[in-house]
Write a structure and sequence with these properties.
By secondary structure, the chain is α/β, with parallel strands linked by helices. It has one domain: NAD(P)-binding Rossmann-like Domain (Rossmann fold, 3-Layer(aba) Sandwich), CATH 3.40.50.720. It is 33% helix and 15% strand. The protein has helices spanning 12-22, 53-60, 78-99, 133-152, 173-176, 180-192, 262-273, and strands spanning 3-7, 27-32, 43-47, 65-68, 103-107, 155-161, 163-164, 177-178, 197-202. Strands 3-2-1-4-5-6-9 form a seven-stranded parallel sheet. The protein has a two-stranded parallel sheet with strand order 7-8. Helix 1 (12-22) packs across helix 6, helix 2 crosses helix 3 (78-99) and helix 3 (78-99) packs parallel to helix 4.
Length: 275
């Protein structure tokens, strides 16, 4: 694995992955709908709308593996979700198959299993219970990845990412938080270690965590960070426990009243419509 494609490179998580990938691999082709600032000398910049299959075929040509973090990263209406997360997913896997790409590491989400209750610890084999249209789109991506592996042998690792920030800032993040360095470690291991059509939880070493990465010993993921180190900085996480604010692991996404940010979704669609 020498030549890596990173989609969604202008996004919040994609920006954090650029330097670790560029420091590890011979060439990193970075792509997004938006212009991206200059980075490492071995980065190759390509603007691409992943809902355009012809453009995606050109984008994936000549790479060994894909790190797919492109798409719309939160709840929205179907008008936003379908092109950004459904059509783009099918385009990417089909183009990867045509191009002979060996592996895809992609951003799934904890919202695939968001309707599991917070008093239950679950593993990677837990029943999918999407908590939102966004969660449904990520469950779709996991199903697509499984299909392309079983039928064509295209390997993949889906990362059910919790909340990636420099440090946790609320009580839910004491269970869901992943440090950016741990996320980068997971991505690199997904590229370099044996996988089939697996999923792993993108979470740091948190004592209050809800998720187990069982069944993936060869991945060798060893998170270096823990939300426990920040207990004293979270006002509603006093020693001795707390009453969960949310009944379900998806937090606010599992609420019937949560519809995302319409203005942000509209801006995303306008950016995608630019020639």
């Amino acid at each position: 694995m020498k030549r890596i494609l990173l989609t969604g490179a202008a996004g919040k998580l994609g920006r954090r992955l650029r330097a670790p990938l560029a420091g590890r691999f011979e060439l990193v082709r970075i792509s997004d709908l938006l212009e991206m600032p200059a980075g490492a000398a071995n980065e190759e910049h390509v603007l691409c709308d992943l809902s355009d299959f012809s453009a995606v075929k050109e984008l994936v040509a000549g790479v060994d593996a894909i790190v797919h973090f492109g798409g719309y990263p939160r709840e929205a209406d179907w008008e936003t979700i379908i092109p950004a997360n459904i059509i783009s997913t099918t385009n990417l896997w089909e183009a990867a198959l045509v191009a002979g790409v060996q592996r895809i590491v992609y951003a799934s989400s904890n919202h695939v299993i968001g309707f599991h209750p917070v008093d239950r610890e679950i593993g990677t084999d837990a029943e999918p219970k999407p908590d939102s249209r966004y969660g449904v789109s990520k469950a779709f991506a996991e199903t697509v990845a499984r299909f392309y592996y079983e039928k064509y042998g295209l390997q993949s690792l889906g990362l059910r990412i919790g909340r990636c920030e420099d440090k946790p800032s609320d009580s839910r993040m004491l269970s869901t938080w992943i440090h950016p360095e741990d996320l980068a470690q997971l991505v690199v291991r997904g590229i370099e270690q044996p996988v089939a059509a697996d999923v792993a939880y993108g979470v740091s070493r948190n004592a209050r965590g809800w998720w187990r990465n069982d069944g993936l010993p060869e991945l060798g993921y060893e998170p270096a960070h823990s939300a426990d180190d920040y207990l004293g900085e979270i006002p509603d996480a006093q020693k001795g426990g707390e009453t969960p604010r949310w009944a379900f692991q998806g937090g606010p996404f599992a609420s019937a009243q949560y519809v995302g940010d319409p203005l942000r979704a509209a801006n995303f669609l306008r950016a995608a419509a630019k020639p």
